[in-house]
């Protein structure tokens, strides 16, 4: 009997936790949706939005196309940008929009370039449900190219870790 109650309590606790998580995701996603809309609207008439998939295939390497247009992920520790330490700006490899300042880059130990903040108006986000749990995908606000995922395990001051595919970035030294 005790074992049955323990299982029931565990199931109820799990269900309650999922319900709370869903409420939390919905409340934060409403604010994020409004910000995404503003960022995306800023570039709605951009020539980058008019490119066809064939245009993107011609512009990008096969690896960049797979990540940026098909929402793939490059293998960890394969990008030279992971170890880039110079002062400068990281740009979208698709449309050259500045996305990150080197001041926000940090070594997350994950094998991908990581940043704790983005430049204002540079990104949009959306839920990514490809795995068992929901992650937050972010993408370039101008050309809508996939960049990576943002996690809440980064350093101060934001507590965020923008885990970026290096192939989706170019670096411009200051």
UniProtKB/TrEMBL annotation:
Q: Which GO terms describe its cellular component?
A: cytoplasm
Reactions mediated catalytically: L-methionyl-[protein] + [thioredoxin]-disulfide + H2O = L-methionyl-(R)-S-oxide-[protein] + [thioredoxin]-dithiol
* EC number(s) stated in the UniProt entry for this protein: 1.8.4.12
Tell me the GO BP annotations in alphabetical order.
protein repair; response to oxidative stress
Provide the MsrB domain boundaries. Answer: 53-174
The species this protein was found in: Hyphomonas atlantica
Keyword terms, alphabetized: Oxidoreductase, Signal
What the entry lists under InterPro entries is as follows:
Met_Sox_Rdtase_MsrB, Met_Sox_Rdtase_MsrB_dom, Mss4-like_sf, TAT_signal
Q: Does the keyword Signal apply?
A: yes
Output one GO MF annotation.
peptide-methionine (R)-S-oxide reductase activity
Q: What is this protein called?
A: peptide-methionine (R)-S-oxide reductase
Lineage: superkingdom: Bacteria
Signal sequence residues: 1-31
The cross-references to SUPFAM superfamilies, in alphabetical order and at most eight, read: Mss4-like (SSF51316)
- Pfam families cross-referenced by the UniProt entry: SelR
